[in-house]
Structures are given as structure tokens and as C-alpha cells.
Amino acid sequence: MRSTRMSYVVLLLLVAVTFFLSNTSVFAARCQISNVSYGYPQQAATNQRVLITSTVAGSCVSNGEDYYSVRVDIIDAPSGSIVSSNSTPIGYNATNFNVTAENMPTTPGNNGTWHIGIDVYVIRAGGTGGSYLLDYKTVGNATIQLGPPSAIPESPSGMVVGIVTSLCSTALIFNRHRRLRAQKRR
Fold first, then answer.
1. Over the stretch 155-186, which tens digit does the pLDDT of each residue have?
2. In terms of domains, do 46 and 104 share one?
3. CA 170: distance to chain centroid?
4. 130: alpha, beta or left, given left = phi > 0 and alpha = psi -120 to 50?
5. pTM higher than 0.70, yes or no?
6. 10-61 pLDDT, tens per residue?
7. Mode of pairing for the β-strands spanning 43-44 and 133-146
8. How many CB atoms neighbour CB 91 within 10 A?
9. Measured in whole angstroms, how far is the alpha carbon of residue 128 from the centre of its chain?
10. Are residues 18 and 92 in the same domain?
11. Which domain holds residue 118?
12. How many structural domains does the chain have?
């Protein structure tokens, strides 16, 4: 009975040590994205390829053995689909990195406002997910005006101001005419 308990204790210790060691290697390779900035055109034609640049800064716990890269996906926000994906190498030394990725998505065929999202990943050794995915960040939504800008309809308050100005001007003109007639009669 005593040897059975001892076997269970040893087995639990082996499982705990294995679990701890397996997680330590995953945590040692973790990366952290500290900043993402991006540039894109404010306006473009429909069905046009546009340049979107993303500058990614961060750091990884790196011993120089693994190869790191940054992947940037441009997402069509209404549909949620990836319209452009590009990987840019960081290299073997990723302790502090600052890389710029360029994407060239094609704009939709309809005039209007195109909403896009930008997803940034740091990956190790050319992987795409799982233990190879080291950090992930979504950076806000951007909008690009497609086609000619829409005409802004005149607001009703603008018409009201015009009407009030016209009425006041007319009243002043009539009042002035009345004074001039009154002076001529005297």
C-alpha cells in the first residue's frame, strides 16, 4: 500500500516537472509588440492597388537560435476576410526589433468608404500559429474613401440662415426707402 502511494507521488511529481519545463520553453520564446503605426491613403480609386505600411516595434526573449518575423494581415472589416497578408523578417536577434511591412491590397469595386482592420503577428521559425505564434495585436480600424467624394447635401439650417438674411436685408431696404420718402415730403 505504501509503495503504491509512493508511486503516485513520484508520478505526480514527474507530471508537474514535465508541465513546468514544457511551459518554461514556451514562455522563454515569448515576444511582446510594444507599438504599431501605420500609413495608408485617405482616398483611392475603386479596384486600385494601394500601399499600406505598418511599422511594428517590440522585443522577444531571443537566444539567437530561432528565426522571427512579423506578419501583417489587412482585413476587409465588413466581410472579415483577409485581403492582403505579408511577412517581413526580423531575423535571429529579436531582442528589440522595429520592422516595416508593406501590404498592397486591391480596393473594392464600389464607391464609398472602405473600412479595414490591421492584424499584426510575431511568429517564430516560419510558423503560422500554435506555439509559433508569439504575440498578436489588432490595431484600430482605418477608412479609405473610394471613388469621388460624395457631395455633401446642403443642410436645412443653411437655408434658414439664407432666408433670414434675405428677409432682414429686405426689411432694412424698405425701412431706408420709407425714411428717404419721409424726408422728401418735409
1. 555 566 666 666 666 766 766 667 767 677 66
2. yes
3. 54
4. left
5. no
6. 444 444 444 444 444 444 448 899 999 999 999 999 999 999 999 999 999 8
7. parallel
8. 12
9. 20
10. yes
11. 2-146
12. 2
